[in-house]
Amino acid sequence: MSQAVSIWDLRSIERPVLNLDVSKPVTKLSWCPSRVGLVASLCRDSPSIRLHDIHHYTAGGEDQEPAVITRSITPDASTFISAFAWHPTHENRLLTASYTGKLVDYSVQERITLNWSATSALVWTHGKKTLKQVDCHHPVYAHYDDILTAIMTRAQKKYGLYVDKNLAMNGEVTGDISLRNLWTWLDAAKGLATTGNFKLPGGVPYRYQGVW
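Now predict its structure.
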């Protein structure tokens, strides 16, 4: 067992390209067969496996530090792991064994790259070759309360353009009770001002440009 883990590049064996930080003696190391640049390490008396992602390493000058992303996974926190093995073909899947004889089939969740398009579609990575998407037409999107989608939907229904005859129509297309009440009040105020029935104290008609 070793408490020092080094990664070597066979094209240049003068020194290791990087050294991995470990807190206890390492009992096992294994490269992931379905993911380039991902190595797992198991320390003695540990319920967790550490994953070291060195995929972003680029050979550079001697003073250049390679980028390594390290995280831990804990398939079963109730016991220490005695051994583990990657699945030979299934992406990011491994099997762990504990000292109590318990086996755990575990799938390693990838860090996702999330993008939000100009049309309000959420797109993220799912594995090496798959992208998943949720757009404004998906039922789950209603829970996001996205104001951009609301603005786009109202614009498509000509929100704010009903100004000549019926102002209340602007509120009907929003689906929002507060906006509907507001536009209904504006329509009623406009009608009163237009007919001359809305007057200030003293009988002065409340009709002049800019006020409804």
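Residues 112-156 form one domain.
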